[in-house]
Amino acid sequence: MQYETVIGLETHAELLTETKLFCGCLNRFGAPPNTLVCPVCLGLPGVLPVMNKKGFEMALKATLALHCRVNQFTTFDRKNYYYPDLPKNYQISQNYLNLGVDGYLEIKYDGQEKRIRVHNVHLEEEAGKLIHTEEPGADYSLVDFNRAGVPLLEIVTYPDMRSLEEAEAYMNTLRNVLLYTEVSDCKMQEGSLRFEASISLRPTGQEKLGNRVEIKNLNSMKAVLKALEYETGRQRESLEGGGVVAMETRLWDELRERTERMRTKEEAHDYRYFPEPDLAPVVIKDQWLEELSATLPELPLARRNRFVTELGLSDYDAGVLAEDKAVADYFERCVSHYESPKVVCNWVTNDVLRELKERRLEIKDFPVGPEMLVELIKLVETGAVSMPVARGVFVEMVDTKKKAPQLVQERGLLQISDSAELEGIIQAILTENPNALTDYKKGKKTAFTFLVGQIMRKTKGKANPQMVNELLKQKLEAS
Amino acid sequence: MKVTELIYLTGYQLKEKLLSRGLTAQEVVEGLFAHLDEVEPIVRAYLLLDREGAMRKAREMDARLKKGEGLGLLGGIPIAVKDNMCTSGLKTTCASRILENFIPPYDAHVVERLKEADAIIIGKTNLDEFAMGSSTENSAFKLTRNPWDPKRIPGGSSGGSAAAVSAGTALMALGSDTGGSVRQPAALCGVTGLKPTYGRVSRYGLVAFGSSLDQIGPITRDVRDAALLLQVIAGRDLKDSTSSDIPVPDYLKEIEKPVKGLRLGLPREYFMEGLNEEVRRAVEEAVKVYKKLGMAIHEISLPHTPYAVAVYYIIATAEASSNLARYDGVRYGYRAANTQNIIEMYSRSRVEGFGREVKRRIMLGTYALSSGYYEAYYLKASKVRNLIGQDFSSAFESVDFILCPTSPTPAFKLGERLANPLEMYLSDVYTIPANLAGIPAISIPCGFTRENLPIGLQLMARPFEEAGLLQVARAYERETEWHLRRPEL
Ligand SMILES: [Zn+2]
Predict the structure, then answer these.
(1) Gap between the Cα atoms of A36 and A24, Å rounded
(2) Does 3.40.50.300 match the CATH number of domain A419-478?
(3) Are B219 and B182 in contact (CB under 8 A)?
(4) pLDDT by position in tens, chain B (length 489)
(5) In a 3-state reduction of DSSP, which class is residue A467?
(6) Helix H or strand E encompassing A432
(7) N or C: lower Cβ tally within 10 Å for chain A?
(8) Which helix (H) or strand (E) segment is B176 a member of?
(9) Does B88 reach chain A within 8 Å, measured CB to CB?
């Protein structure tokens, strides 16, 4: 029997605020344990939360970017559960009147666009972090509360994804939207973007959903995909063997690459949600929404499509460029100085992205700015330098932060386009390689390529390739 | 000035004496502690005394007076603070084993305000554990006695604060009121107790019991002192999102205005079964005083009153079950020894750290919020709470103030109601509605029983009408002398 996979995702994204959600402590990754804390985020007796307006606004911005209906009267609720990393043993979250409901995210996979519906978007506070000591036989764990109270956005989808590929496209697109709207840095290795998945299988063509399994402890997109793949197999096997998939929560074991039962449906937590009495409801006026909507940037998919329709790029290239807002911005700044988007695109997708990757740089720290790159591209266009030389110059520009014309001059890399000079060089090469000449006469085409190579070698790549081609051909035909 | 005279002064009077240099602040504090050393072994109002801090502040006051400098609004007045308000560097226990050694690194907002106003903080007073109770018998540390009859309870949960003001071991005190915890002990100890409008006074640093009900209020020897203390603690605090930015009027000026022509409502539901006859008579006599002062008296109805206690015990316990979850032995407070795992550490720390009544309320509240019961209990209670609020708003369309007893009975005997929590809960039947509606209410002395036990009169007003409320209370006080009586100890 054929089965269809049904996937839903819950995403937690830490917001990029200066301070925590309910107190004035800094929101920073990597500080020594328990140095970014105060009575409020430690949950000491008698303290009260005060809403960080910036954090709320960022959440609202993401909510709008996900096309949600905003609850203009939104409230906060307490989610009660005991865990040592949770200072108050309740988390201030939203349950009854979420910030945003019924939105969607448009994804593109295999050339097809699809809307993944967003059930709700809500704002909550982050918990601290348990540190399990490596000391043998230790009977304690440590808690770092630096993260406790950092604003966290939760985005919950409907079970709208039908394959691993769609789930992957969703995660990538969502990440881009959060980066584009500048509400989160989405650094998975720092835990600022985390996922939980739910997955069920049903016979293809059947309407009714199968029993759903929730998977926790997914610390990277790769883990999500691996876990979903494992779970698809496990559930299919169970169904094919005539079994029933139990409704339960399972934990992804990264090491063993498998999921394990964490708790059954019967053991599910009762969070005893109730309205948070310490925070007043937030009333969002139309004007605020309008002002925020106006600040929303063009979203990744729209930008990708515009690169195809207006700039004539391939969908693949457009996708690569639009994936990272900063890269796309860089590309567009280059294009504003140079009329051929395709040429710029080749430079950015090949050379710029390669250097960024090799040097582990972010584009904001990249030494070759858009104006500098365009200057180099123009040197190629005017024939001042050859393409191979330009590639080398580019790498040197990254190393030295020097501008292209300066490097070309310093290194004497100007292209040789003087026919008299080129003819002299060609003559010398022919004299040095009489066999090649003979081979050419016998009809061996490779001899021609060999001779061009020798000429380029002799000129260190500076010879104008087009002129070399023409002049060499003339010379060979004449001799 | 002799100690016996000192203890009859109000804060307002004492400050005038200090300013006219008839007395030094050090004399006041020394005199007060001398008196305290005599009566405290009987009354047992305090959990902690800060003799050193009080003397230091007194010396500072005297030095400033000597230089001819002025004093803050509460300059040199000895004040007691209920031990559920955080005091930086001083233990704040909530009368609970679980916080027995907890020293907060910060002041509650009200404590900051007291310090800025130059009050002299004497110490921290006893209460029912986490303010849960009506007799102060739920304290984990000591039993406080009623200064009028040491065999009786002082009321609660601010029993220590009310007993201290009554016994002359503090001139003023702060209490907190979730369901009557300022007004009921004030009534039972023969002093004045005000619960302001929800949001009038910042709750920052008040250890939370029922967050949507809790409000800090003054316990004083007369209405003028209540106005003075409220003046200092009222107003917007950025650390409490539920505190209001409605401007704070000049209460001392407002309270001396005449009350003629104002309309007073008597809710018939507050004069029914369960009301002690002597209390009823005293309250009816008070009505006559107001009639004489030219106020219009109307009988009114607050039809949802019978549901108030039930609604209160769902909402307050639900909030408490969550508020008290943080006392788990992980970061501070009591931690059980020799536990095998985290679950055992949680449960044993809480079983050993909390008293019976607190555990009872945590369980009640947890139940009321549980999946499958939330709608039937918490949600329904919230709806009825709104109806109770509407009762008051419609009543206040036809009257300006509401008058009723504060407590159905005078102070009862120690241990008398411990075995029957329901009977204990009914002690607050007249005070709870004001908390549910968030409106201000005050209790003032209005007589004594044949056994010489004080009786309290309660007045309620529209939200943020503390000025009017104090004005009406003050008008009665000027006509009567109940508030001048002192217990013999
Ligand atoms: Zn903090």
Answers:
(1) 9
(2) no
(3) yes
(4) 676 777 779 999 999 999 998 899 999 999 999 999 999 999 999 999 999 999 999 999 999 999 999 899 999 999 999 999 999 999 999 999 999 999 999 999 999 999 999 999 999 999 999 999 999 999 999 999 999 999 999 999 999 999 999 999 999 999 999 999 999 999 999 999 999 999 999 999 999 999 999 999 999 999 999 999 999 999 999 999 999 999 999 999 999 999 999 999 999 999 998 899 999 999 999 999 999 999 999 999 999 999 999 999 999 999 999 999 999 999 999 999 999 999 999 999 999 999 999 999 999 999 999 999 999 999 999 999 999 999 999 999 999 999 999 999 999 999 999 888 888 888 899 999 999 999 999 999 999 999 999 999 999 999 999 999 999 999 999 999 999 999 998
(5) helix
(6) helix A419-432
(7) N
(8) strand B172-177
(9) no
Rounded to a whole number, what is the distance in Å from the CA of A269 to chain B's nearest CA? Answer: 10
Q: Which of A42, A82, A279 sits opposite B331 (nearest CB)?
A: A42
Q: Which amino acid is at A236?
A: R
Q: Rg of the Cα trace of chain B?
A: 21
CA gap A126, A400 in Å, rounded: 43
Instruction: Cite the DSSP H helix spans in B241-355.
Output: 251-254, 277-292, 308-323, 342-353
Interface test with A, best of B323, B382, B385 (most A CBs within 10 A): B323
Contacts of B319 in chain A (CB under 8 A): 274, 277
Q: In chain A, what residues touch B370 (CB-CB under 8 Å)?
A: 270, 272
Residues 6+ apart with CB under 8 A from A9: A156, A157, A161, A167, A170, A171, A195, A196, A197, A198, A224
Q: Which runs of consecutive H residues, i.e. helices, occur in B118-249? A: 159-167, 183-189, 223-233
Unique residue bearing structure tokens 């519906």: A117
The contacts of residue A45 (CB under 8 Å, 6+ apart) are B86, B92, B94, B99, B102, B104, B207, B208, B326, B327
Closest chain A residue to B316 measured between Cα atoms? A277
Determine whether the interchain pair A39/B211 forms a contact, defined as Cβ–Cβ distance below 8 Å: no
CATH 1.10.10.410 positions along chain A are 419-478
Disruptive mutation site among A19, A47, A125, A142 for chain B (greatest number of B CBs within 10 Å) = A47
Return the SS3 of B399.
coil
Helix (H), strand (E) at residue B446 = strand B441-448
B328 contacts chain A (CB < 8 A): yes
**Torsion of the alpha carbons at A275, A280, A286 and A292, rounded to the nearest 10:** -90
B369 Cβ contact list (under 8 Å, min separation 6): A80, A272, A273, A274, B318, B321, B322, B377, B378
Class of B3-262+461-484 per CATH?
Answer: alpha beta
Q: Is the peptide bond before B157 cis (omega within 30 degrees of 0)?
A: yes
Using the Cβ of B332 and the Cβ atoms of chain A, whether some distance falls under 8 Å is answered with yes
Rounded CA-CA distance B179/B212 in Å is 11
Provide the pairing of β-strand A100-109 with A274-275: unpaired
Joined tokens for residue B205: 């640093």
Does B378 lie at the interface with A, CB-CB under 8 angstroms? yes
Residue recorded with tokens 């943080």:
B326
The complex's ipTM works out to: 0.96
| Cβ burial, residue A23 (10 Å; 0-12/13-18/19+) | buried
Query: Is the Cβ–Cβ distance between A274 and A268 less than 8 Å?
Result: no
Domain ranges of chain B: 3-262+461-484
Pinpoint the alpha helices (H) of B44-145. 51-66, 109-116
Of A54, A117, A45, A279, give the one whose Cα is nearest residue B239.
A279
Contact B145, B152 (CB under 8 A): yes
How far is the C-alpha of B382 from the C-alpha of B468, rounded, in Å?
29
